[in-house]
Write a structure and sequence with these properties.
Length: 199
Amino acid sequence: MEPLGIEGAWVDTPEVFTDGRGRFHEWFRSERFHRATGQGLGLRQANCSRSARGTLRGIHFASVPPGQAKYVTCVGGAVLDVVVDIRLGSPTFGTWEAVRLDDTTHRCLYLSEGLGHSFMALEDDSTVVYLCSEGYAPDREHGIDPLDPALAIAWPEDLEPVLSAKDAGAPTLEEARRQGLLPSYEDCGAYRSSLVGSA
């Protein structure tokens, strides 16, 4: 696992074993994960989504505490997966990083609590699965416009983004800040520290 430039985000490139029968790889092992990140991932929910080419989901995040950490991979097709630092007071606030997840490299992306998550399907029937540290709770779930010009995420120019009505109507990062929706860097760090030894 390698850390990204945004604190709290890592990319994992597993070893894939291939023979005449097909392929095999481990896409998550808790001991290895903890050794690399110094964090635990308490599993409360596992999600699976299948998307048509051009589908753009997110930017999604949950209120901290407890937030919702995610460990994401693509088991069919390919997506451009994006982590956005929305933590007020973070040295990288307002920045983003993109990682291609696909069914060839089998890379995974981990996002700690308090980070925003979004992805665009690069192929039809792109299938994303992710482990979540907390279950879905509508009163704690929020979104930010993935097409916010201030964020300027470099989505593929050859694809027309297809968004849900909810994602299309999400506030910009600045609007979310003014509405008091964004987590603070300090609160996210304190919450993570409170989990040490309990995961």
